[in-house]
Write a structure and sequence with these properties.
- The strands form three sheets. Strands 1, 2, 3, 6, 7, 8 and 11 form a seven-stranded mixed sheet that branches.
- By secondary structure, the chain is of the alpha+beta class.
- The longest helix is centred in the C-terminal third of the chain and has 16 residues.
- The chain contains 19 helices and eleven strands.
Amino acid sequence: MSATRLRRPGVSPPAPIRKERTVRGPTRARGTRVRAARAAAVAISLVLVTAGCGGGSGEAAPTGDGRSSSATAAVDDGTTLTMWTRAGTEALSRAYVDAYNATHRNQVRLTGYPNEEYPAKLASAAGARALPDLFAADVVFAPQYAAEGLWQDLTDRLATTGLADRLAPGHVRAGTWEGRGYAVPHVIDLSVMFYDRKLFTRAGLDPDKPPVSLGEFAEAARAVGRLGGGVHGTYFGGNCGGCVEFTFWPSVWASGGTVLAPDGRSSTIASRQMADVFSLYRALYQEGVAAPASKDEAGPTWLAALKGGKVGIAPGPSAWLDLIEKAGVDVGVAAIPGLDGGESTFVGGDAVGIGATSAHAAQAWDFVAWTLSDAAQVEVVAKGKGVPVRTDLAVNAYSSADPRLVTINTIAAKGQTPYARNFNASFNDPQSPWLRAVRGALFGDAPAALAEGDAAITASLRQQ
């Protein structure tokens, strides 16, 4: 018997894990009822304080702090590894796995789960001490999973690669808890501004000169909206907290505003910048420039709207570039601007780590380390029009061949990744105070809704 624990010493019991909403990639759809997720969270809370039996394999079981006695080994010996991910980012995880399996003795078996079911699935597996060998998760949930001990400690292993200071810093921070690293960047997804070059031309706009301020964005949307014939100037996810944070917050940041305190325990949404951003989008909706479906868009049909060739300009996930282009849209890419200029992006995506109950840490690390290699980042990620997780590979043969990818990679350095342990409950959950604030700010009184939401979000962020 080993005293393997998921809860680390000194860490308070976890906040309830609720259902995840989709934002990035085709990633953020409406979450289902939170009751099942709360029940699963009860199971994880129980197991986090209970010692369990170690695995019976030849690999050393993880210790109480999540570190394996094999420390930094990477082993490729033909072991079959299990890996889980959310459906929204499964495509890139699948590309990693296929390339790894084709060149290694170890074989990774990947399973993707619907975004809205995934957090509860992880909680249930933790409660049963049956986490997969590897699992990826939305980067904004990484602080919670790291704090709760769902991943093994990768600090010493990562140090052997010499890559720690060349990885996406926001993702690295998200996977760090109390000075130790538990996850590394896996998928980078940025919020960008997409625009239909053909509709721009028809509206008398220069498709080679996208808007550089939110005011110019609004005027471009109005110009395209005047074309009529079912064409709308813009589109947004008005009933999706995750969609709005992913696409509106960059304008706040680019305008000098903030959303969270640095420690992730206080909201700062009741700002002039946030109110002005919401007021601009509210005006576009009231004028009929934004498609009517924007009001109730909860995520599932967001991508379809941008692929239809009937929307002039709208913010969305960079991972959609290839999907929109394959739908026949001549799509341009620009940075999301601030109210009067500047630019920023929400650096989202996934982090990946080794499951706390895995008996194959050395083999799992072999896969994780390989995903950070030049070969994986250039020939798998960049070749597929993705953003490398390594900052030193942002410029590569594939990105240089497509000016839009150059734009995306350049924007990445100007973005932010929010950090908060209770991010899901506070912002992405269907019952979150953020979504209530969003609805009020978009379709009511923005300053009042944001002031009320600010206090409620802060209270949620501080729940233990």
